[in-house]
């Protein structure tokens, strides 16, 4: 449960929050950092869900993609899909 939040901190903001949570000297301090980490993952989900839905719609239209066991979807920076 904590691992995705620690990872999100590094992607969305600053991974030092995770370290601070683990080394906090009090429960209250650790809880403060845990809440920050949780906010990071909520923000990440809010930002990525629309993109994920759009990519899945594109894949569902492609019969070759539907038959594959895995697919990598990428977008060059600056190119709007």
Using the alpha-carbon principal axes, give the shape.
Answer: elongated
Derived from helix and strand composition plus strand pairing, the structural class reads mainly alpha
Please estimate the helix content.
over 70%
Number of distinct beta strands: 0
What count of helical segments does DSSP give?
4
In what range is the share of β-strand residues?
Answer: under 5%
Tell me the number of structural domains.
Answer: 1
The largest sheet is:
none
| Uncertain segments | none
**Average pLDDT:** 84
- Using only C-alpha atoms, the radius of gyration works out to 17 Å
H/E element order:
HHHH
End-to-end separation in angstroms reads: 32 Å
What can you tell me about this protein's structure?
The structure is a single chain. With 81 residues, the protein is mostly helical. The protein has one domain. Helix content is 72%, strand content 0%. The chain contains 4 helices and no strands. The protein is elongated.
For this entry, give a set of tags.
72% helix; mainly alpha; 81 residues; 0% strand; 4 helices; single chain
Provide a compact summary of the structure.
This protein has helices spanning 2-12, 16-23, 27-60, 63-67. The protein is an all-alpha fold and 81 residues long.
């Amino acid at each position: 449960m904590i691992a995705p939040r620690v990872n999100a901190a590094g992607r969305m903001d600053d991974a030092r929050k995770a370290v601070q949570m683990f080394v906090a000297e009090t429960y209250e301090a650790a809880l403060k950092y845990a809440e920050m980490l949780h906010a990071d993952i909520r923000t990440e989900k809010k930002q990525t869900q629309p993109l994920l839905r759009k990519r899945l719609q594109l894949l569902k239209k492609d019969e070759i993609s539907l038959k594959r066991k895995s697919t990598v979807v990428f977008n060059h920076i600056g190119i709007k899909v």
